[in-house]
Amino acid sequence: MSHYFRQDFLTVPDGASLYYQVQGDGEPGMVLCDGLGCDGFVWKYLAPHLERHHRVLRWHYRGHGRSGLPRRRERIGMLYTCDDLNRVMDAAEIHQGVIFGHSMGVQVALEFHRRYAHRVRGLVLICGSYGTPLDTFHDGTWLKRLFPLIRLTVERFPRYVAQFTRTLVSTELAMQLALAVELNRSLLSKSDMVPYFTHLANMDPVVFVRTLESASHHSAWDHLPHVNVPTLVIAGELDKFTPAWLSRRMAAHIPRAELLMVPQGTHVAPLEQREMVELRVERFLRERLLSPSASGEPGANSGEEPTVPLPTVTKG
Question: What are phi and psi of 232, to 5 degrees?
Fold first, then answer.
């Protein structure tokens, strides 16, 4: 087991200083892409599991976590994110990796494959959508209709919105509401969510809405049939942010993709059913990417959800 660890900042041509860290050793490398407003909280258990046998790259998007902003603050969005990832992988000395995406990171992973397919060895798409997430949030369009007003307010009164958001998100009520409405309280430790709320409370709301606007207009739906690498789709059965039917649809349209439906899981399934997710990812890597027969191996098509405790994938 390697104890290799390195963290650094990469300044890209437009001035954004991007934080990244590399831990562990072994091929292929694992690249973890966060959701919107996140700085890695969802990888709390999965990352150390992967680091036992692989080099794992974790990084922060522009304006997220420890990463800074470009000189021109409007340079925020999906295509900038993909170009940033390409450069960060160079800095981390990962020529080709398995790209993991959580939530908005699923869109990042798919778009990155579209633009930089030669750098992608496989995909693990977790609790996310292939595109236009405001169209399906909580299985409705109310957030999409409301978003123009939200963005206008944030852009016009950024200081007041930041203060309000910091105060609101830092309250115990916000945490309890999230645990009661959005997450599975019986499977989740409150301490696992504290880093998310801490980061969100301190994030620039203008960066948040501009990143969300870019994601809301982006779709990789047309690219799904062209994904030519082993792909594992993981979904939370009770996910309200990105409803489970999106993952079923995505897995059905990616050639030979596999699907894990996490029973009772929500948008943070890797925190709620950590062992199940770890074992399924481990098996996917072993069978589809690391075994002597993995090259060209047809794999199983998704279509049926796996059973517990160790999920299986059946023919669709």
Answer: -120, 125
Name the helix (H) or strand (E) containing 6. strand 5-11
Burial class (CB in 10 A: 0-12, 13-18, 19+), 145: exposed
Q: Give the mean model confidence (pLDDT) for residues 85-103.
A: 97
Q: Which of 136, 306, 182 is nearest to 232 (CA)?
A: 306
The CA distance from 6 to 273, in Å, is: 29
Domain annotation for the chain: domains and CATH numbers: 5-143+218-290 (3.40.50.1820)
Residue 13 · residue 83 · CB < 8 Å: no
Residue 293 burial by CB count (10 A; 0-12/13-18/19+): exposed, middle or buried? exposed
pLDDT tens-digit readout, 17-59: 999 999 999 999 999 999 999 999 999 999 999 999 999 999 9
Q: Are 261 and 245 in contact (CB under 8 A)?
A: no
Residue type for position 222: D
> Is the peptide bond between 28 and the residue preceding it cis, with omega within 30 degrees of 0?
yes
pTM over 0.85: yes
Question: Do the Cβ atoms of 234 and 267 come closer than 8 Å?
Answer: no
CA atoms within 13 A on the CB side of 237: 13
Q: How far apart are CA 65 and CA 136, in angstroms?
A: 27
Half-sphere exposure of residue 37, counting CA atoms within 13 Å on the CB side? 18
Query: How far apart are the C-alpha atoms of 316 and 302, rounded to whole Å?
Result: 5
Q: Which long-range contacts (CB under 8 A, 24 or more apart) does 169-173 make?
A: 169/197, 169/200, 169/201, 170/197, 170/201
Question: Hey, what are 92's tokens?
Answer: 């981390």
Across the strands, what pairs with 100?
32, 124
